[in-house]
Amino acid sequence: MAVSESLQRLLHIRTLEEEQRRIALDAALAELHRLENALTAMRARERSGRDQVALASRSGDPCDRIAGIVECESARRGAQRIEARIPEAAFRASSARDEYLQKRVERRQVETVIEEARAVQDAEAARRGQQNTDEWFSTRRHARSAHRQPDKKLEIEDRKETASIPEEELKSNL
Length: 174
What we know:
- The structure is a single chain.
- By secondary structure, the chain is mainly alpha-helical.
- It has a domain of 104 residues.
- The chain has three helices and no strands.
- Helix 1 packs antiparallel against helix 2.
- It starts with a helix and ends with a helix.
């Protein structure tokens, strides 16, 4: 079973879909991180406003104190708005992660089918190659046997050495 062109196209489509989902996941995670960083900045700004109020209360300047209170209140409200948006962004990131993982599973399933088809194809090619080799040797063997003459029997002569080995040579070999 050869790997069909439609399976190759399906793998390509699944790969593209997975890539799109990964990009969407990256965007959702980036938004979540941006909101978390903005929340941290708002909390730091609120602390800065409180520090400004504390300094103004020691110095006695009412304008600095009012500016610190306004800064603190503005940062608190900004933090509340950001805190309200974080769960929504986390939900979008979670959904994007689930979609990405689903597309990844689908791509891997198609890859598995293609790998199995290729393995079957390779095994079939190896079997055919072995069969061709076996047929070649078989025809070669039959061609050899056709050239031989079956009536003639090969005679093996038993040759005995008639010459004796001198004793001196025997002793030197020991």
